[in-house]
Specification:
This protein has four helices and no strands. By secondary structure, it is mostly helical. Helix 1 packs across helix 4 and helix 2 packs antiparallel against helix 3. The longest helix has 23 residues. It is elongated and about 45 Å long. It starts with a helix and ends in a 7-residue tail after the last helix.
């Protein structure tokens, strides 16, 4: 698998795992709130990165890494950001 497409699949995997596993553990969601549009969007994003990588590998890798950092720190979908959930799981999250 190409480098950038793998990064794109990791972005979708992190987002899906956050909504399926981490959000319910921290009390911020339930399995019934899972956003199923993540699955086809991940496939389309990975295919787009694969195509862009044929034209310009550094551009595709840069777009993929930007998406990876963005998905870790921002709220995407129905759950808080993965790092927010990790913060709560580890017990560092303050009362809000």
């Amino acid at each position: 698998m190409a480098n950038a497409a793998g990064i794109g699949l990791a972005v979708g995997g992190i987002t899906a795992a956050n909504e399926l596993f981490f959000a319910p553990v921290t009390g911020n969601g339930a399995l019934s709130n899972f956003n199923w549009r993540i699955i086809p969007a991940t496939g389309v994003f990975a295919l787009m990165l694969f195509g862009i990588e044929k034209l310009s590998p550094p551009l595709a890798t840069g777009v993929g890494l930007t998406a990876l950092v963005t998905v870790l720190f921002t709220r995407v979908g129905n759950a808080p950001a993965p790092l927010e959930n990790l913060d709560k799981i580890l017990g560092y999250g303050g009362k809000k």
